[in-house]
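This week, look over our next protein:
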Amino acid sequence: MNFHWAVYLSLFLALWSAVVGGVFSAFSEFVMSGLLRAAPAGGIESMQHINRTVLRTQFVAGILIIPLLSIAFAIYAWRSGLGDTAWPVLLAPVVFVPTVLLMTMFGNVPMNNRLEALDPNSAEAATYWIEYGRVWTRLNHVRTLGSIVTAGLYMLGAIALAASDRSLI
């Protein structure tokens, strides 16, 4: 059976998941660290600007599109009889949806919204900034790991699909 498109879709989802994971990793490793070293008002105001800007990027589109493609691809893989090659494709949305999409929607975004509502120069903002930096970054580590694991699963899926399709070898 010819699975060329499935191999390419697996590679696309692997690449996009890895890019998302790389952005999350960069944020956890040095962006948040730098913002938290600044004076609270400066770090808060910068993060508010970052959060406003990110909403209009392909990064957010990826966070929203990957789960849709992943679930549709998993349903196809399950129903079409891809056999043993399907397990990474089936597991990928099981990893990505809770660790990236849901973590973003119910963890990081509510924290961003609360931060957005604060005056960066207020005492309340300075107090929240300490908690925000600690908790938000911890949640972001989960998103990083989820994205990277998802990328690995899609790479394994592409390899398995390519190996099962003699026309690709």
About this structure: Helices lie at 4-37, 40-54, 58-80, 87-116, 123-164. DSSP finds five helices and no strands in the chain. The mean pLDDT is 93. The first helix runs from residue 4 to 37.
